Amino acid sequence: MSEITYIRGDATAPSVKGVKVIAHVCNDIGGWGKGFVLALSRRWPEPEAAFRAWHRKRASNDFGLGAVQFVQVEPYVWVANMVGQRGIRTGSKGVPVRYEAIDAALEKLAEKATELGASVHMPRIGCGLAGGKWSRVEPLITERLVAKDIAVTVYDHGEGRS
User: In 15, 30, 53, 98, which residue has its Cα 20 to 30 A from 83's Cα atom?
Assistant: First the structure.
């Protein structure tokens, strides 16, 4: 079984060949405006537009915790909008991250990556604004993606590991 590859760099600009899926965690209230999504929006308008439309029409689709929306932004590049946090603020119920939702989303991501023959690229999902711990997220990625021989690269912008 391979392992997660860790590199310093920009997850919106994977430099490997072949089909790539850039995965990140979104909230369940339709907010898009802080953290990694800003880097995505600087590169492509489609992921944000698709996410907002998905949230707006949530009464008639699968939008919610654990759901994933796949948006093709270039011939060989897809963005996976994974709903893995409840709201955006840390409150009485703790931090916004929902590990079980990330786990469910990663399972859908694995199916799509396998179907596309794609590698997966991501920041430390769920660990920025969502407040999650990488020690809880990393095993989910290993189990859902790496164990299925999907190449996963995690990008750090120079911040420490938590």
Answer: 15
Q: Where are the beta strands (DSSP E) in the chain?
A: 5-8, 20-27, 68-74, 77-85, 119-122, 152-156
Per-residue pLDDT for 15 more than 50? Answer: yes
- CA atoms of 26 and 68, how far apart (whole Å): 9
- Give the CA distances from residue 27 to residues 14, 16, 152, 155, in Å, rounded to whole numbers and listed in that order: 24, 28, 22, 20
Q: Which of the four pLDDT bands, split at 50, 70 and 90, describes residue 156? A: very high
- Residue 89: CB atoms within 10 Å: 11
83: tokens are 């709903």
Candidates 40, 38, 39, 63; CA nearest to 52 is 63
Q: Tell me the C-alpha distance between 133 and 126, whole Å.
A: 8
Higher confidence at residue 161 or residue 135? 135
